[in-house]
Design goal:
421 residues; alpha/beta; seven-stranded mixed beta sheet; five-stranded parallel beta sheet; 14 strands; 17% strand; disordered N terminus
């Protein structure tokens, strides 16, 4: 199940309904594990409400295991609030000891560094989570020979086996998690599913929360749209029933999204700060007639979770952008627009879309490849282009909704709906 909700009351109700879909034990005690690594007080507060719901509504006393990344973080306010419950223990993914098998795995992985994406542990692909975690931490292209990368592998394996031991020592009835991705969250999330623990993932964002449940590892690995914020087939079939479709709400949300008023997917990034129509008329219109097609290359926030959930052809967003620019430079019959993700100016990066643009072209004059300002809204560009090239991203959904076909290099929220190539 995957769904989106807007307030705290609705969240607690939703979690209660999800729990009710499971057969509750007849005993008055259950074991719950909570990922408290997100570091957001609101998330912890919502977990508290869910626990209170167990105690006072369902009359069930939970035994609670709070998992933190580092031991000292149990004293942070976002985690300390759980000490008011009975039967609470804190566990850390941080460990000072790796057993000999772990060390062997660590050494083997370092010797075969380029096979990181295919690295499996306990039969589960963990390599993509390791790689995503490293890219997010460094906010740049992965350097497989760097000491920091080798240390990152060791840390990732440490987290994996710490998480594995948590589930080996106790059988949990429920797991509440704040994310699925990166080496930190992925180690606990994947081990939870491997143990067949009923797992609810909550991802907060501004006014909204997204909740999705998974019962087993194949609920994540074998599902096309497996990200918590996307719709699985069951939820999608319910949402897309004609009686559930409200075109007025859809149009309202779409207009909020493209104008930057959307409060869910950080829509403020979309707020235009420059007028693309004027730019096109003054700078592009006269020469656009010399090309057969106009294509928008929509870059991603390059360091943000390329592999932790959906699948993609390339090793990461950086590789995709480099290869796409190389191919674009070979085709002079097409006018190419390259647009950096607007989050680059909001969140920052150590290797930007412009850096890669300059690296690939190396100062060569390519009049048919134009780097746009990220301040142009994507929707204002759609009317001028024939296709959109991206890996996934919400721009693929926006483009499809605007009548522009997205050509994607990976799975994403619109996969399986015949909206992309």
């Amino acid at each position: 199940m995957a769904t989106q909700i807007k307030n705290i009351k609705s969240y607690v109700f939703l979690i209660s309904k999800i729990i009710q879909s499971r057969s509750i034990k007849t005993t008055n005690e259950i074991n719950i594990v909570i990922d408290s690594m997100h570091g957001i007080m609101l998330t912890s507060f919502l977990y508290v409400l869910v626990l209170l719901n167990f105690i006072y509504v369902k009359k069930i006393q939970p035994k609670i295991t709070i998992v933190v990344e580092k031991k000292r973080k149990r004293f942070y306010p976002v985690n300390f609030i759980f000490t008011f419950f009975k039967n609470v223990e804190y566990r850390s993914l941080e460990s000072s000891n790796l057993i000999s098998q772990d060390h062997k795995l660590d050494t083997t992985l370092k010797e075969n560094i380029k096979s990181i994406r295919d690295f499996k542990i306990d039969g589960i692909n963990y390599g993509e989570f390791i790689l995503s975690g490293y890219i997010r931490n460094t906010r740049s292209s992965p350097n497989y020979q760097a000491r920091t990368f080798k240390k990152h592998i060791t840390k990732s394996l440490e987290y994996w086996h710490s998480a594995k031991n948590i589930y080996k020592e106790k059988k949990f009835d429920y797991a509440f998690m704040s994310h699925t991705s990166y080496h930190t969250f992925g180690s606990l999330f994947l081990n939870s599913l491997a143990a067949n623990t009923f797992t609810v993932v909550l991802t907060p964002d501004h006014e909204y929360f997204t909740a999705r449940s998974y019962s087993k590892i194949t609920d994540f690995t074998n599902i096309l749209r497996n990200y918590p914020r996307s719709l699985d087939d069951k939820t999608s079939s319910l949402v897309l029933k004609p009686e559930n479709i409200n075109m007025n709400k859809i149009e309202k949300y779409f207009n909020e999204r493209i104008t930057g008023e959307d409060k869910f997917f950080e829509g403020n990034y979309q707020k235009p700060i420059k007028n693309f129509h004027t730019f096109f008329k003054e700078k592009i219109l006269s020469k656009s007639k010399n090309y057969k097609k106009i294509v928008l290359i929509a870059s991603h926030q390059l360091w943000d979770d390329p592999l932790g959930n959906y699948k993609m052809i390339y090793d990461d967003y950086y590789s995709w952008l480099r290869e796409t620019l190389i191919l674009a430079s070979m085709n002079r019959n097409v006018l190419w627009f390259i647009k950096p993700h607007p989050a680059e100016r909001e969140r920052g990066t150590n290797e930007s879309c412009e850096d890669i643009y300059n690296e690939v072209l190396r100062g060569k004059k390519n009049e048919n490849i134009i780097l746009l300002d990220s301040g142009f809204s994507s929707s204002s560009i759609f009317r001028y282009v024939d296709f959109i090239l991206t890996v996934r991203g919400t721009i693929s959904l926006e483009g499809a909704a605007s009548g522009v076909m997205p050509v994607t290099a990976g799975t994403g929220p619109i996969s399986g709906y015949n909206l992309d190539i």
